[in-house]
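Input sequence (676 aa), recorded before submission:
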Amino acid sequence: MNSRIYTAVFIFIFVILFLYYAVSSRENLAFNNLSPHVAYVGNEECSYCHQDIYNTYLRTGMGRSFYKPKNQPIIEDFLSNTHVFDSKSNLHYEIIKDGEDHYQLEYRQNDNGGRIHELKRKVDYIIGSGNNNRTYLTNVNGYIHEMPVTWYSEKSIWDLSPGYENINMRFNRPIVEECMHCHNDYNKFEKFSVNRFTEHIAEGISCERCHGPGQLHVEKHKTPNRESDKYNIDKTIVNPAHLSADLQMDVCRQCHLQGEISVFKAGKSSIDFRPGMKLNTIKTVFIEDKLPKGDFRIASHGGRISLSACFIESDGAMTCTTCHNPHEPVQERSREYFNNRCIDCHGPQTLSLLENHSINNDCVNCHMKQGATEDILHVNFTDHWIRKNINVLSDEENRSLRRQEEEVKLIDFFDEKDNANDIRKGIAYVKFYESRHSDPSYLIKAVLLLKHGLEKVPNHIEGNYNLGRAYQLQGKNMMSAASFNKAINLDPDHMWSLYQLGRLFIHDDAQKSLSYFSRAIKLNRENAKVWKEYGDALLLTDNIKEAKKAYKKSITIDPYFATVYNKIGELELYKNSDLESATMNFMKAIQYNPDHVFAMHNMANIAIIEKDFDMAENYSKRVIAYDPGFSASYGTLATVSLERGQNKEAKEFLHKLISLEPNNQQALSILKGLNN
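Predicted structure, token format:
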């Protein structure tokens, strides 16, 4: 073998060893700021040394993801077309700007055009950069809720917020911890709440979400006379470029992997993830088992790109940062820039072999088309599944898809095989049933998976709780109670199990129910729903004074809790005979929920007492319009008709009441008297 061959072989071996070392060292590089004891320092500290990067980052979608109305330029049109009508709920909305403040006004009209309901709520925060849309949030005592109307930038229109076209949640859709995590920085989330954030609420995703906590880095660089290490990697802060491809992707996937449902690992939450960690050590992301027309969502890039042949065949060389600089706004990059990223791999020689391809073609437009996202109407987004023959959806096609309630089969995106994977999938089906589609088949699947998983991991707290929840939703109360009790035996401070047990026993054993609610309240004294249920249990034990105190506490926490105002009104009306106080509380209940049938029925009863039969008729007809099966209102209308001497009409209402309540003796007796 001649010297040239020896030299070539040596160089080849050297290159292989170098690449192996480079990749393995990148894979195994340990950063010092992964420890949970290292503190976050905030963007301001980062800006001292990285001002240029910081300034461009603030213009990105991440830098403008969450803010107060006054802290970002106005892009909305507050002068024209500010009216939105939801035909399903028969509710109107008006968008109002008053100085720096924004408001959303909700109202309903009667047949004559008069307003029979009106509620005005202030915008406290805006979520979304405005590149695609802006959605608005309201804050009450730290409880953050979404508002019904969103600004859609691409079409310059106001319309119902995402998902509200199916179910109008009005001002009551909770912004849960995971929502806040992907749209904002780390915020202190109140344990055992659904959507309460305490102390200061941040504005925008910080540098540390991608680089990890900066305490060690700041301390190091503020140390006088420190030795320079410019030729070594600074392990006090994560630079994603020094991570393996999978770990790089996980930095982005913490928010840009939107599946159907995410389930956190035991004892973990969103704030436990730190760049440089594997995302699947924190949570499991469940996606559909097939990728039909849909599943293209506004935050699904991390999942969609993994389907691409480019990504798969790159063997780790391709990541999000291959095409994106997270410090610079995407909108400031030309289409040519992104096309060149394609040409970097698919060079002129490769393209020349393909029919109708050249370096002058628009790669992105053909292979990463923009289309309507499945989860948000009026928004076009780039589909990151790079492929041929793409058909994207229109808004109308998306509307049609949303109306098809096809069964969804969930699979684990990371394809994990540990002992608890069945438990997490079972939890996912429970969550899917509660939040997305109330098909009983999901509960059946959940129970089977949870039972099987708990055979392997019997001490899984959330597994036992969710099995109890699945049984509870199936109406199997005794089996439900057994699972909740198992969760409490494992964790005596599991508030949600205590709460659900209180609800289970409230009608059969009010005293036992009280004991569970009391324990739950000790764990979280700022949960309005627990105080409401506690008040209900007190009322069933005839402790009216303490029940009223519990209800008052509930509306102190949530001053828009319509059901509690109705409860207080019923106490005042039926226990204290205080018509004035009762009326005031019923009216508040109706103001905060214009479809609160019990409050409207109670107002009709007051009207009967006060001989205001027109008002009694009006409220009763409003109840029936919303709920034709609300039998008591037919009794009220029969009473009104009898008072007016309209016996024929009274008979019709009584017949309707009896058809709903065949054993209603009072109605049968009155009808018999009218027929004689």
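Checked by second reader. Residues 8-28 have pLDDT under 50 and may be disordered.
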